[in-house]
Amino acid sequence: MSTESASAIQKSQVDLVDFVDWSGVECLNQNSSHSLPNALKQGYREDDGLNLESDADEQLLIYIPFTQVVKLYSVVVKGPEEEGPKTVKLFSNKEHMGFSNVNEFPPSDTAILSPDNLKEKPVVLKYVKFQNVRSLTIFIEDNQSGSDITKVQKIALFGTTVETTDMKGLKKIEDH
Amino acid sequence: MVLEATMICIDNSEWMRNGDYSPCRFQAQADAVNLICGAKTQSNPENTVGILTMAGRGVRVLTTPTTDLGKILACMHDVEMGGEMNMAAGIQVAQLALKHRQNKNQQQRIIVFAGSPVKYDKRVLEVIGKTLKKNSVALDIVNFGEEDGRKPEKLEALLSAVNNNDSSHIVHIPPGPNALSDVLISTPVLNGEGGGSDLPAAAGGNDFDFGVDPNLDPELALALRVSMEEERARQEAAAKRAAEESARQEKVEEPSSNSQDATMVDSADDRASEASGNNTDPVAITLSMQTPGHNDPSVHDVDMSEATHEEEELAIALQMSMKDESDMSKVLEDQSFVSSVLASLPGVDPNDPSVKDLLASLQGQSESEQKKKEDEPPNDEK
């Protein structure tokens, strides 16, 4: 099952980093010298020395708008064993959330990351909840060791775009 | 020019009746608030400012962030003094007001006027500061009025908890002859980051060489500097040439013309230093320096004849300098002669790299002629 899902990622899903609307990307409580592009942008995120780090406490609130409507399939969060994120809540299409109202809405999906996930094993999401995503809010609630600073090395989102869905790709999903 | 939504927290407690700021603390504070509102809305037309009071019967929001300056000034009128300041609640309400601002693209900022004693614990303030930082709200604190021992320390602790990348500031204003608002003008509260606003820089003098701020007009500053250097180099070359001429003639004449050239060079240098030292119109100065250079021989002629009593010898010397340059170049080729002449000129430092370059080029001779030609065309253009 996991190998199938991994192959599904390769075949039909694309890395949505190309569809991120960089002008609207925000991250609350990030350390200004270790900021979100370190984890999100192509090139920076491959460098394990460049992390996104939290500042005042261990929580992070990341807002990612997209240039198109996308369907989100899975997400990869890579981080160090100790300070990598543990509980990650995802909200779709909720703009400008703050730390005070993250707990008011039920998240579209919640993921508790295991050490495997932190080694780039993708987390498959509830696909039905992410069919029509204009923006994604990632709330990192705590980290593995409970330390004051959460570090994230890479955040990658996988899915398809709605307008430009490749018909061949669709076929392949139906195959399995 | 940062797009910002600001909430100003006013202290309207009983402590504000004190008269140590004229006419009373409250009035000084009100003036400062007006000044800040004006500055914020001017720096970016989309900036919004809101006001709330922290004392009285409780924290009360007078206006939510708005671009309408008139509304802000109007609501300042109705404020009454009384009660005790509740800074923690004030800051939290301000944070809430900012959270619900209309334009989510604006940066959030809170300006707190802390005039009465701060009764909170340092720890409480630090927690507040952390929450502000977490929500990326910047905080400016204006510490004035009551001076009790622990207040600055507590406010500094609050500032360091909030401060992210120097976007938050604290200003301590002791009572004094200057109005609160005047002192605020020069602080980062009004000017954001990166130095003074346009008003004080223009009003007060500036330290730049030509009275032109390289930041405001880099091309003009550069052009002035280049023309000044060219003029100086031309003056030196001309002075040297005239010195060679007179030296070639007669030994007797040499000292006088050397002194003459020395005074010429001195006066040129004086003018140069004058131009760089003061704020007098730089363009006029460079132009005036250029005109002697442009009509080089003839003005030298005039000045020199006025300056010394040995007119005839000088006239001859000048005529010789006006004559064929190739004669002079041969003279200039004599390295030792040239250096001795240069050393005798007080305005010219033989160790100056530009002079050394000139000397080196004189050996080849071609560059000196080129330089003269180069100087003339820019002169002609000007």
TrEMBL record, chain A:
Signal peptide: none annotated. It holds the Pfam family PITH. Residues 5-176 form the PITH domain. InterPro entries: Galactose-bd-like_sf, PITH1-like, PITH_dom, PITH_dom_sf. SUPFAM superfamilies: Galactose-binding domain-like. It comes from the Eukaryota. Belongs to the PITHD1 family. This is PITH domain-containing protein.
Automatic annotation (TrEMBL), chain B:
The lineage of its organism: Eukaryota, Viridiplantae, Streptophyta, Embryophyta, Tracheophyta. Residues 235-310, 345-382 are annotated as: Disordered. Residues 5-189 form the VWFA domain. The keyword Repeat applies. Keywords: Proteasome, Repeat. Residues 275-293 have a biased composition (Polar residues). Pfam families: UIM, VWA_2. Belongs to the proteasome subunit S5A family. Transmembrane segments: none annotated. Residues 235-254, 297-308, 368-382 have a biased composition (Basic and acidic residues). PANTHER family: 26S PROTEASOME NON-ATPASE REGULATORY SUBUNIT 4 (PTHR10223:SF0). This is 26S proteasome regulatory subunit RPN10. It comes from Hevea brasiliensis.
